[in-house]
Amino acid sequence: MSDRGMKKWAPYKTLEDQWTTLDRLHASEEKVEKPKISNEVAEEINDKLVNYQGQEYEFFYYKNGRILKEKSTIKKIDAFNRKLILDNNIIIYLKDLIGVR
């Protein structure tokens, strides 16, 4: 017998009062812990940012319990505030960056 998990509550989502509660429960189940990056990965990220020449990269970063991916070029590297500003105006803090490809 399989565990139906949140599926068993889906029919009750028709009741308006339960929408927000069920959505919040479902979203909290999908959250993951922030992955720790190795020194090698940190050096690789640093090398790509230091030697940046306008190429498009895939940025993998952690935000609100999720790992997100954004494909873009860098508009600005703000070393003082430790963040990247991408061409599509997405801001990625360096502490949240987990990979660049």
Structural class based on helices, strands and sheet pairing: alpha+beta
Mean pLDDT: 86
CATH fold topology of the domain at 39-100: SH3 type barrels
CATH class of the domain at 39-100: Mainly Beta
Helicity level:
25-40%
Instruction: State the low-pLDDT regions, or none.
Output: none
What do you see in this structure?
With 101 residues, the protein is α+β, with helices and mostly antiparallel strands. The chain has a domain at 39-100: SH3 type barrels, CATH 2.30.30.520. The protein contains two helices and six strands; from the N terminus they run ααββββββ. It has helices at 16-30, 39-50; strands spanning 57-63, 66-72, 74-78, 83-86, 91-93, 97-100. The strands form two sheets. A three-stranded antiparallel β-sheet has the order 2-1-6. Strands 3-4-5 form a three-stranded antiparallel β-sheet, with no helix packed on it. Strand 1 and strand 2 form a beta hairpin. The longest helix has 15 residues, at 16-30.
Question: Summed up, what is this model?
Answer:
The chain is an alpha+beta fold.
Provide the fold topology.
Blueprint: H1 16-30, H2 39-50, E1 57-63, E2 66-72, E3 74-78, E4 83-86, E5 91-93, E6 97-100
Antiparallel strand pairs: 1-2, 1-6, 3-4, 4-5
Features:
elongated; SH3 type barrels; 101 residues
